[in-house]
Amino acid sequence: MTPECYVVPAPGLALNLQQCEMFQVGVMLLMLLLGEYPPWKTPCALDKNFVAFFESGVAAFMASRTLASPLSAGVLDLLQRMLVVNPRQRITHAEALTHAAVLCVTGHDMGPEDGPTGEIELS
């Protein structure tokens, strides 16, 4: 769950589900890279591990872990931009698809035309 789900929104302010998804994808990427759950139980100011994680920053947290191989600056930047508490400052889907860390893996710009179509191709 994302941090904004744990606060009461201002009147007339709705959750932006795409912004929520980017935080969740960041958490999943963090879990894949660490091979473990994130260090917090609840993404809110009441969870001291959540607060410590965001006060130290993603790069410092990852540097404190023993990983099979070091992470590139691009991957750290992508994680840092996904795991932003304020949803309005979080990376968007379009920005993530054209981020250097994604381009390095895919070999090309994954613009909106390369995104999911909702169709499953069976072979």
Explain what the structure shows:
The structure is a single chain. With 123 residues, the protein is mainly alpha-helical. It has one domain: Transferase(Phosphotransferase), domain 1 (Orthogonal Bundle). The chain contains six helices and no strands. Helix 1 (17-34) crosses helix 4 (73-82). The N and C termini lie far apart (34 Å). 15% of the residues are buried. Mean pLDDT is 77; it is low at 114-123.
Summarize the structure.
The protein is mostly helical and 123 residues long.
Features:
single chain, globular, Transferase(Phosphotransferase), domain 1, 123 residues, disordered C terminus, mainly alpha
How is this fold's topology laid out?
Elements: H1 17-34, H2 48-56, H3 58-63, H4 73-82, H5 93-97, H6 100-106
Low-pLDDT stretches are 114-123
* The CATH fourth-level homologous superfamily: Transferase(Phosphotransferase) domain 1
Q: Briefly, what CATH class? A: Mainly Alpha
Calculate the mean pLDDT score and round it. 77
The total tally of domains equals 1
Label the structural class.
mainly alpha
Oligomer: single chain
Largest sheet, in brief, is: none
Q: What is the rounded distance between the termini?
A: 34 Å
